[in-house]
Structures are given as structure tokens and as C-alpha cells.
Automatic annotation (TrEMBL):
Family from the record: Belongs to the EutB family.
Assigned keywords, A-Z: Bacterial microcompartment, Cobalamin, Cobalt, Lyase
Gene: eutB
GO molecular-function term, one example from the UniProt record: ethanolamine ammonia-lyase activity
Pfam families in the record: EutB (PF06751)
Pathway assigned in UniProt: Amine and polyamine degradation; ethanolamine degradation
Protein's name according to its UniProt entry: Ethanolamine ammonia-lyase large subunit
Subunit structure, interactors included: The basic unit is a heterodimer which dimerizes to form tetramers. The heterotetramers trimerize; 6 large subunits form a core ring with 6 small subunits projecting outwards.
Species of the source: Solimonas aquatica
GO terms classed as biological process: amino acid metabolic process; ethanolamine catabolic process
Length: 471
């Protein structure tokens, strides 16, 4: 048995100088210990002063990690995500750190003892609340250092997440799903060596016929040139299931997810439906080197925007979404860090911090994390800020990033990274695409053994071949 209500209340107080601070519950400690962000302020959860924030961090640092298994931020009986977290917790994996406080856990994660293999074994023993808590005690550099030690490898038609590699999602969106426009954007990305993680289209409409048409177009291109990658139309999972029933060439099942049952209900999903999608996609047996067939997207603020956050701060709710993803062995998970808007992440400082948090926390839970380095046009951010975040994430070992033509998504009306940004990061940090995709690029004459693009005149044959294949 745990310490009980009185014992927990005694844990949630501290003294700074002449002033005492008390926090009502664990949710209040987690929220007040968070770095400042507009979403928590909007929800009325944020610390009222920097001193209160420091007090909350002190309380959090002294909390036993095992207390998160007893004092639940969302009630077990009310929420299937909480039940998933508790019922799937691996006590044996947790044992090496079970006697630590949150502060001691932070020090351990930064130590030599916490190497890549050790962190991989530890992941099933960590709950999202433990991971969110420790991240709140970390500086940005700590988040980078810890994430860089976490290596999560996944496979479908190629191998993602290996050391020395940086994957990319090629995002050829079009405001009317015009095949010619999508094909042009896709070919443009391939010429930059982009698309090893996935060629993924956000459809303008969630239509089964349109989804099938786009899947067929991408699959024809992939087969014609034997491209070792996977495609995805980011339709709702129910649309993907109907497309599978009609014989569509579907590689990955996509779905946006959140950290509570109520928020997921707002997306029109539950855990049972996600399992149905996993089983349906695996039954197609379309992978060549693995069977990781799920693609999940998340974003800080999604639970709050659905009024389904249960009074929990947005970053902790975000990490709970990673617990939803974990049982489904996804090929890809990414946070669309600045997409939801300044109501939740106000400016570049908050977006950069959130991106590093999301990546580190997802990796600690054993997920193949990518990030859409992005912002909306009404946020206090610009492309220079995205340059900073993408460079930090590449240094932290992010599995993949998303790129769109010219860094401007004309369908979703937000700013992301451009194809050449990924190429530049690979050159700067001596990173390569997935090995199977890198070998294909060389065979096609689209890059040399160092990943460098050939001059246009030397590349004319490959250009003619690719453009001749456009529908």
C-alpha cells in the first residue's frame, strides 16, 4: 500500500526562504514545475510566479518514482489510457530505478551508467508521468544528451532509427489533392534524397475513393522505380480500414492520438479500433524487412483543445499519448510541435523547448520519435527559429523530420522544413538516410556515396526517368 492521501499531501509542500508552498495534488506539482507555456496558462494550471515554479521543481525532485504508480493523475476507473499505463507496467524493467526519486533519476539518466542498451531495457518500466516529471527538471541540453543515448529502430521496407542516420518524411500535400501537383512535389523531394521514413500525404478530404486513388498513385511510383520506402495517406483510421477492404495498396495505418480516453474519443478512436487497424495492416504483409505498420501523430495541447485534459498540464498529457502508441509497435511517431498554435505554444522559445521535451520523452518510453519542426503564421516564431530546433533535434538523434516544398505547406497553411533543410543537416552532421534508401539513391544516380547531390547536368538521366513516370 502507498502512503495514502495524508502522506501524499505531505510530499507536495516545501519551503523557500521564509515562504512555504503547498500544492493540492500531483497534477498541481507537475503543472507548476513545467516551463512556462501559454497552454497551461490558458487552462489556469501554470505556476503564478517563477518562485512557485522553483518550489514545484523542488517538490518534484524529491518525489519517489514509485509514487507515480499509486497517485494517478487521471483516475484508473475513468480512463482506458490510465488502465493501459498501469496494467502494462513492467515491474521487472522498473526495478533498477524503483528506489530513486525523480531528481536522482535525472542524475542517473545523465550518467555513464545509462547507456543505450540500459535505457532500452528500462523503457517498459517507465510510465509517461515519470518521464514527464523528470523532463521538467532538465535543461534543454539535458534533454538533448539523454535523447541522443536512446536508439529506437523500426522496419517496414527499410530500417529507420539506426545510429548515424536521419530519416525524413516527404510531405507532398496539395489543396485539392491534384495528382499532378502531388507527383511534382514528390519527385522534387526524391531528387533531394527525401522520403525514406515515408512519403505521406495529408489528404484535403477524408474520402475513401480519394484515399484509394492517392495510395494507388504513390504505390505505382514506388513499384516502377523499386523505391525502398513506404507510403501513407494520413486519413482517419476508419477510412484506411475501408480502403483496405476495397483492396487498396496501403502500407501504413495513420492516426492522430492523445493522452486521455476522452481526447481520443474526440478523434473518433479508442484502443480497440487502433488494434483493429494494426491487425488489418499487418495481414496485408506488404513490408519487406519488417512489419511495423502504424504511424501516429501527437501534439501538445490536443487534449486541452478537446477539453479532455482532466486538469493535467499539456506536456504530461502529451507524454501519455506516447503510452497509447507504445503497444502498437509503430514504425513512426511524430509530434507536430508548433502546429496547434500560439494558444498552446506561444513563441519560438516555447516551441523549441516542447520539441526537445517531446522527442526525449518519447525516446525514453521506447518510441521511434520524429518531429514536425513547424509553426503557424500567427505564432511568434520564424524560420530562423526552426533552423535552431532542427539542428538541436538532429544532434539529439531524432529518427526523422518532416519536409515540404519550400518549407510552406500550401494545403495545411503552416510553415515546416524544406527538402534542402534535411539535406543540409545530413551534410552538416555527417548523417545518411536509411541504408536501403541510401543505396537506392546511389543506384539511381541521385547522390554519391557521401550523400552529395550530383550537378544537374550529370543528373539529367535520372531526372528524365523520374519525370517521365509522373501521372
Amino acid at each position: 500500500m502507498g502512503p495514502g492521501l495524508v502522506g501524499f499531501m505531505a510530499l507536495y509542500q516545501t519551503r523557500l526562504g521564509a515562504r512555504s508552498y503547498r500544492f493540492a495534488d500531483l497534477k498541481a506539482v507537475l503543472a507548476c514545475a513545467s516551463p512556462r507555456r501559454s497552454g497551461d496558462e490558458l487552462a489556469g494550471l501554470a505556476a503564478q510566479s517563477d518562485e512557485q515554479r522553483v518550489a514545484a521543481k523542488r517538490v518534484l525532485a524529491e518525489l519517489p518514482l514509485k509514487s507515480f504508480l499509486e497517485d494517478l493523475v487521471v483516475p484508473y476507473e475513468d480512463d482506458e489510457v490510465t488502465r493501459l499505463i498501469i496494467d502494462s507496467h513492467d515491474a521487472q524493467a522498473f526495478a533498477p530505478v524503483s528506489a530513486m526519486s525523480v531528481g536522482q533519476f535525472r542524475d542517473y539518466l545523465l550518467s555513464y551508467a545509462a547507456d543505450s542498451d540500459t535505457l532500452a531495457r528500462l523503457a517498459p518500466g517507465l510510465t509517461p508521468e515519470m518521464v514527464a516529471a523528470v523532463s521538467k527538471l532538465m535543461r534543454n541540453q539535458d534533454l538533448i544528451a539523454v535523447a541522443a543515448k536512446c536508439r529506437v529502430v523500426t522496419k517496414f521496407r527499410n530500417t529507420l532509427g539506426l545510429a548515424g542516420r536521419l530519416g525524413s518524411r516527404l510531405q507532398p500535400n496539395h489543396p485539392t489533392d491534384d495528382p499532378m501537383g502531388i507527383a511534382a512535389a514528390t519527385l522534387d523531394g526524391l531528387l533531394y534524397g527525401i522520403g525514406d521514413a515515408v512519403i505521406g500525404i495529408n489528404p484535403a478530404t477524408d474520402s475513401v475513393p480519394d484515399t484509394i486513388r492517392l495510395l494507388q498513385m504513390l504505390d505505382e511510383l514506388r513499384q516502377r522505380f523499386e523505391i525502398p520506402t513506404q507510403s501513407c495517406v494520413l486519413a482517419h483510421i476508419t477510412t484506411s480500414l475501408r480502403a483496405i477492404e476495397r483492396g487498396a495498396p496501403l502500407d501504413l495505418v495513420f492516426q492522430s492520438i492523445a493522452g486521455s480516453e476522452a481526447a481520443n474519443r474526440g478523434f473518433g478512436i479508442d484502443l480497440k479500433l487502433l488494434r483493429e487497424g494494426l491487425d488489418a495492416a499487418r495481414a496485408l504483409q506488404r513490408g519487406s524487412v519488417g512489419e511495423d505498420v502504424m504511424y501516429f501523430e501527437t501534439g501538445q495541447g490536443s487534449a486541452l483543445s478537446a477539453n479532455a485534459h482532466h486538469g493535467v498540464d499539456q506536456q504530461t498529457m502529451e507524454v501519455r499519448a506516447y503510452a497509447v502508441a507504445r503497444p502498437f509497435s509503430p514504425l513512426l511517431v511524430n509530434t507536430v510541435v508548433g502546429f496547434i498554435g500560439p494558444e498552446y505554444l506561444f513563441d519560438a522559445k516555447q516551441i523549441i523547448r516542447a520539441g526537445l521535451e517531446d522527442h526525449c520523452c518519447g525516446k525514453l518510453l521506447g518510441l521511434p520519435m520524429g518531429v514536425d519542426v513547424c509553426y503557424t503564421n500567427h505564432a511568434e516564431a520564424d524560420q530562423d527559429d526552426m533552423d535552431t530546433l532542427m539542428t538541436l533535434l538532429a544532434t539529439a538523434g531524432v529518427n526523422f523530420m518532416i519536409a515540404v516544398p519550400g518549407a510552406d505547406d500550401v494545403m495545411l497553411s503552416y510553415q515546416s522544413l524544406a527538402y534542402h533543410d534535411i539535406l543540409g543537416l545530413r551534410h552538416l552532421l555527417n548523417l545518411q538516410p536509411a541504408p536501403e534508401f541510401a543505396a537506392w539513391l546511389q543506384r539511381m544516380g541521385l547522390c554519391d556515396e557521401h550523400g552529395r547531390l550530383p550537378p544537374p547536368e550529370a543528373n539529367s538521366k535520372a531526372l528524365r526517368q523520374l519525370f517521365a513516370a509522373a501521372p
